[in-house]
Amino acid sequence: MNILIVHAHPEPQSFTNALKNTAIEELKKLGHQVEVSDLYAMNFNPVACAADFTERGNPDYLNYALEQRHASKQHALADDIQAEVEKVQKADLLILNFPMYWMSIPAILKGWIDRVFVSGIFYGGKRFYNHGGMSGKKAMLSFTLGGRDHMFGDGAIHGSLENILIPIQRGTLAYVGYEVLTPFIAYHVPYISHEAREQMLIDYRQHLQNIENLPSIAFPTLEQFDDKLYPLNQN
Amino acid sequence: MNILIVHAHPEPQSFTNALKNTAIEELKKLGHQVEVSDLYAMNFNPVACAADFTERGNPDYLNYALEQRHASKQHALADDIQAEVEKVQKADLLILNFPMYWMSIPAILKGWIDRVFVSGIFYGGKRFYNHGGMSGKKAMLSFTLGGRDHMFGDGAIHGSLENILIPIQRGTLAYVGYEVLTPFIAYHVPYISHEAREQMLIDYRQHLQNIENLPSIAFPTLEQFDDKLYPLNQN
């Protein structure tokens, strides 16, 4: 497989960075091609704005998604966006590798999505969810967080992690067509021993060795809804 | 009340901007003090990084939350962060006003949270949820989106909006202590008539006129959990 790892951590010595390096090493050992977008190292600009388009459909009013659609047809995306789009298009598997900030992805990674998941290429019209532009490809999260395992789940203090991940796993990755694989989650990272972290890297290698057989998360398909996206079966 | 509106839209002629202007006008008319952080106009930097601290607890390894804690004690936060922290501290009500991007907030607003919701001031140790640093204050979302009302809810194509908003309403605003008020949601904005949009602004005025009586969203309290954050009553 061609694999793209998008990595977002400000500290090169971080455990999140070690996860990224472990993935590069292990995936290459397994015979895959691996490319990396290290967003902090690239000084990636995460702010969606008018300068993202070298030519505008409507120069007087910025509707970002409409301009994405226009620019994707006219080859008028800014160079940094175009380069990332091509990396994503080439990849059979996309891995987002990040520390969880505020039950979500860091801003630099959020902005990578805002700017790179271009309307007209990733989605548009009825091309979303299982008909999204990236259908046939896989995506997976690998992330670190401060909380412990028991703080997540139904009835737990933060609620279920599955729910917390809805915007990124369902609303973003599944929305553009990806089959979303079971994430790799490293809990309580800042507070555990060096040995426990080393074990996590071993666990991550095993997770990656199993990548072709990892279960994917079930999401609705367009076939369950009518033309106006009302559910076909309300029972 | 002192009210802070944090606004994040790249187009000054946008309907999201009209919501912000409507809120300023209506809230002032109701006798409140209103301050605005217009993130695009401020060219706000959303990327959490080492330069956010003028002095470091550990100059050799960046643990962002630990450095926030250190810097908040040593008055060593970067000026742009310090200015925003002071605006938030002064405000009895915080309104986040934005277009929904990828079932979430735009990166520039995500980065405002990543950088401004400083550990040691907003939360830390056992100061979170109903004991968070902003407890006693209120927060509210006002946002625009492309989807229609019927596309959200249990069994709907995108699932429930309440779930989609968990990272921001529960994992962020409630986490730091805010009482989270019922959001104002403008559906299907790019596709509706000018008249329908005008009606939405009227609806928003009414929402704001009722701000002191708006229901707030129920979240768990620390008193429902033990010292290690296991639920006290598992039934």
TrEMBL record, chains A, B:
One of the Pfam families matching this protein, by short name: Flavodoxin_2
First-tier enzyme category under EC: oxidoreductase
Source superkingdom: Bacteria
InterPro entries xrefs: Flavodoxin_fold, Flavoprotein-like_sf, NAD(P)H_dehydrogenase_qn
Keywords assigned: Oxidoreductase
Enzyme Commission numbers on file: 1.-.-.-, 1.6.99.-
Keyword Oxidoreductase recorded: yes
MF GO annotations: NAD(P)H dehydrogenase (quinone) activity
GO cellular component, one term: cytosol
Domain Flavodoxin-like fold, chain residue ranges per copy: 1-208
Family: Belongs to the NAD(P)H dehydrogenase (quinone) family.
Protein name per the record: Flavodoxin family protein
